[in-house]
Amino acid sequence: MIKGIILIGGPMKGTRFRPLSLELPKPLFPVAGFPMIYHHIEACSKVPDLKEVLLIGFYQPNAALNHFIMEVHQEFKLQVRYFQEYQALGTAGGLYHFRDQILAGNPEAFFVMNADVCGDFPLNEMLEFHRKTGNGDTHTMLGTEATQQQSLNYGCIVENKDTHEVVHYVEKPGSYVSSIINCGTYLFSPDIMKYLAAAFQKNQENFCTDSIESSLSPSTKECIFLESEIFMDLASTGKLFVYQTTNFWSQVKSAGATIYANRHYLAIYHRTHPDRLAKNGEGKPTIIGDVYIHPSASVHESATLGPNVTVGKNVVIGEGVRVRESLVLEGSTILDHTLILYSIIGWNSVVGSWSRVEGTPNDPNPNKPFAKLEVSDLFNSEGKLNPSITVIGSNVQIPSEVVILNSLVLPHKDLGRSYKNQIIL
Amino acid sequence: MKALILVGGYGTRLRPLTLSRPKPLVEFGNKPMMLHQIEALVEAGVTQIVLAVSYRAELLEQELKVQEEKLGVTITFSYEEEPLGTAGPLALAREILGSNDEPFFVLNSDVICDFPFKDMARFHKNHGREGTIVVTKVEEPSKYGVVVYHPESGKIDSFVEKPQEFVSNKINAGLYIFSPSMLNRIQLRPTSIEKEVFPHMAADSNLYAMELQGFWMDVGQPKDFLTGMCLYLTSLKQKGGHLLHHGDGVLGNVLVDPSAKIGRNCRIGPNVTIGPDVVIEDGVCIKRCTVLKGAVIKSHSWLNSCIIGWRCHVGRWVRMENVSVLGEDVTVKDEIYINGGRILPHKSISESVPDPQIIM
């Protein structure tokens, strides 16, 4: 029996996702029409013998999360429960704290997945690899290739090419170590708890306020981090292996990254859920490329959508509207003749007619193989806002005939004019 | 009577439009700029018109030959081989202008207004001196040549060119009427009429100012061209507005050539001029623009304060604003944004111009 665990973090994590995470926990943000962790759970459901998913995080119980849990339980027939950490415990602290729950029923192994990554998770392939390479007490990390330059932003894995053993691991090194990066997705055997227990003990004894860990994050002695404490020790013990994938994978740190993830998840639908992709037809809007339209949305037949567009529940799209490479979230209205490009229109917002809402994509450089999304600063060295995806927060009113370019608009704002390269509070 | 129109050179301030046509032939309010002036002159009894040009334009000569016949007036070209300034061209045309005792008109070709030629002739005869300058009131006088004169008699005291501090808000409107004797004051060399001729005429009480009623604009550059268009359309409305267009989706003062086609669910106006053979597709919003002959604007686009050149193709969901000017035969692809762009003729635009720029 296999279990699935998703680390969903809490409100203090994922702040770069604002303004979208101001009203909805980031793991529930819809990408390609479904919450981010829906895609994780769906991947779990494809693993035979996986019947139980645990969500671990430090969000307060909230209606959205409960509702989500109920829905995925019904859809995938999996047992899904949320375990709330009493405080932020780091990427491994929660696993240690809830070890009894995790090990209940003697699972053969359990997947651990970070909520803030998106991808075509090859969980079955990882399981097969795990069973082949190990003997019941080994652990497998999912890795992928990045450019040398970008690898410095991730956890770097040095692998033995023959045995696929991880011989060295370092988190965000200052200089180049390896192009293989940690995807934040793991398959642990119950043996891992030994290492978590040892780390926990060590922290209890050695915790001091001057340590690097405590200056980096508001941690306590109950915090344990997989990346900086567990993997480094596990490397070269013959117990940690890496399974490399070339499937789509991306971190989703900023709102703009969801546009990139949206595109790739929609592309995956061709294989997994072709019925979810909108089709052209009589009396229907013009569809170009991959588009997801929620069944309850109302789109005028003279509108043109796509490629790479997701239209949420109860959205209304007026005559002659053009939407491309964008997300239109639940309850929004786009009035006639408007153009939405590389943007996210937040829940229940209204965009007037003949307006232009436009952002700039931060796609990985197509000329560099394995390039990942750039994680750039909000402002450039001259103090100007870096052009990025335009994000319209929830309940925003955008008037007619204006242009909103490369801007971020916080929720519940009534705009009165055009804006370019601005953060509108 | 006779008139001299100072056409001048290449009309560089109105580029990119003047790269394809000589400035007098650029259509303002669906009529070549020059024709507004010539028709008004003919109506006031002018039978002979001289165009002072500093470059030969075949297109101009051809077109004016046609007008000669239509209006029954003689049009001659006075060609400056070297630049003669603002007064020199008068000396060059001395033979025609001074051929008899009748006063002659002189006008700047960029001026659009409610031409008061009959009033000018009357006013000039009344005071009996050598020269009359038409003046108009403006909001920002320091951009122009300011005229200081006695409010009752109109006798001019002095001129101040682009004053730093406020002197008066009446400026030289670029319309004059002179008695032929003033030609003696001008030599055939580069001469500035404002700096070298007028001050002397004013000094010996030979220069008078007549205030212009109604609108006035120097439409020599795109921003002023559009402002002038708004004023012109307003004056058409005030005179009865029967030339103006009315219909579904038309707001305010709009001039539409009968051969133009406008689609459904559009919003045209206020202050829009649509030229012959223009096609406007469905769902287009146009405000404060001039669209020249043969242009096509495709669906759902939004244009504000622009000049769309002849035979241009503007795609769907395009947004253009902030005095963007498209030269002749420019193609703008779907979903492009142009903000204050000046696009040279025959160009194809496939990337947005979010900040004012000249695209060659």
From TrEMBL, chain A:
Which Pfam families does UniProt cross-reference here?
GMPPB_C, NTP_transferase
| Protein name per UniProt | Mannose-1-phosphate guanyltransferase alpha-A
- Spell out the family assignment given in the record's similarity comment: Belongs to the transferase hexapeptide repeat family.
Q: Which Gene3D superfamilies match?
A: Hexapeptide repeat proteins, Spore Coat Polysaccharide Biosynthesis Protein SpsA, Chain A
The record's annotation in CDD domains points to:
M1P_guanylylT_A_like_N
Q: Which domain of life is it from?
A: Eukaryota
Q: Which residues form the Mannose-1-phosphate guanyltransferase C-terminal domain?
A: 287-424
Q: Where is the Nucleotidyl transferase domain?
A: 3-224
From TrEMBL, chain B:
Enzyme group, top EC level? transferase
The protein's Enzyme Commission number: 2.7.7.13
**Superkingdom as given in the UniProt entry:** Eukaryota
Give the matching Gene3D superfamilies: Hexapeptide repeat proteins (2.160.10.10), Spore Coat Polysaccharide Biosynthesis Protein SpsA, Chain A (3.90.550.10)
Keywords associated with the record: GTP-binding, Nucleotide-binding, Nucleotidyltransferase, Transferase
* Name this protein carries in UniProt: mannose-1-phosphate guanylyltransferase
Q: Is Nucleotide-binding tagged as a keyword?
A: yes
**Which pathway features in its UniProt record?**
Nucleotide-sugar biosynthesis; GDP-alpha-D-mannose biosynthesis; GDP-alpha-D-mannose from alpha-D-mannose 1-phosphate (GTP route): step 1/1
Q: Name one GO biological process term.
A: GDP-mannose biosynthetic process
Which residues belong to any copy of the Mannose-1-phosphate guanyltransferase C-terminal domain?
251-359
Q: What CDD domains does the annotation carry?
A: M1P_guanylylT_B_like_N
Pinpoint the Nucleotidyl transferase domain residues.
Answer: 2-232
Question: Does the entry feature the keyword Cell membrane, yes or no?
Answer: no
Similarity-based family: Belongs to the transferase hexapeptide repeat family.
- Which molecular function GO terms apply here? GTP binding; mannose-1-phosphate guanylyltransferase (GTP) activity
